Amino acid sequence: MSKHDEARRAFLVGVAAGAVTSAGLTANARAESHDQHAAVAAPSSGASTPAHSHVAGHGAFFNDDDAATIAAFAERLMPGAPGKPGARDADVLNYIDLALAGAYADQQDFYRRGLAQLDAHCRAAHGMPFAKLDEGRQDEVIAALEQGKAPAFTWPTAQAFFVTLRTHTMEGMFADPIYGGNRDFAGWRLVGFPGAQPLFTPEDLESRQAYRAPIVGLQTQAKG
Predict the structure, then answer these.
(1) Tens of pLDDT along 200-215?
(2) Residue 207 domain-assigned (yes or no)
């Protein structure tokens, strides 16, 4: 993993460590019930017929091409490395896909327009869509969006699209797995978060050692 990737991971993990511990991201992701997400059985009217053969973890909202773009973009925001899960490992794509078909349905047009503009920018600047660019060029595109230097963007603006996708990537990494991301507690393991533990003993609270009990999610609690 390059120094650039390490710096990006360090930034997102550092921000998430405080947000997860204070339940910021998990509270945001709980805005709508899990039942809303699980009940989604068909794509939105604006999505092409979904197929799971090319990119796993979508079908509620994204078509194959858009899913490939989101998966690649999220992975460059939170790149994986040996022993360090990234966005693909945590199934961030699935989280965003379900969210846009449920709790974040009001942002569907934002994503459709943003993805179309991203495709136009990449084709104009590099001659191919984002998902087919090498990692270096993908990083150049992301930097251009972050700096507002992508002329193909009008609405949403390049910076607004970047910030929204970064926020949703962090949610997919660090929100409770019941919402479709943070697979196998990948994000929580990165920041040492014990999850939705029902209670801590006085000894746990007084200990200066890392909490070692198995991580607990909302679904684990429900089964218990």
Answers:
(1) 678 766 877 776 677 7
(2) no
Which pair of tokens denotes residue 27? 């509270």
**Using 50, 70 and 90 to split pLDDT, how confident is the model at 172?**
very high
Residue spans of alpha helices (H) in the chain: 3-21, 24-29, 34-38, 64-77, 92-100, 108-126, 135-146, 158-174, 186-191, 202-206, 218-223
Q: Tell me, yes or no, whether 223 lies in a domain.
A: no
201 lies in a domain?
Answer: no
CA angle 200, 205, 211 (to 5 degrees): 75
Can you tell me the distance from the alpha carbon of 183 to that of 181, in angstroms, rounded to the nearest whole number?
Answer: 5
Q: Name the one residue in this structure whose structure tokens are 């017929």.
A: 49
Query: According to the model, what pLDDT value does residue 206 have?
Result: 81
Is residue 221 domain-resident? Answer: no
- Domain span including residue 186: 3-193
Q: 221, exposed or middle or buried, with CB in 10 Å at 0-12, 13-18, 19+?
A: middle
Q: How many residues does the chain have?
A: 224
Structural domain total, the chain: 1
What CA–CA distance (Å, rounded) separates 149 from 158?
Answer: 7
pLDDT tens figures, 6-61: 665 565 555 555 555 444 444 444 444 344 444 443 333 344 333 333 356 688 99
- The neighbour count for residue 24, using CB atoms within 10 Å, is 16
Preceding omega of 156 cis (within 30 degrees of 0): yes
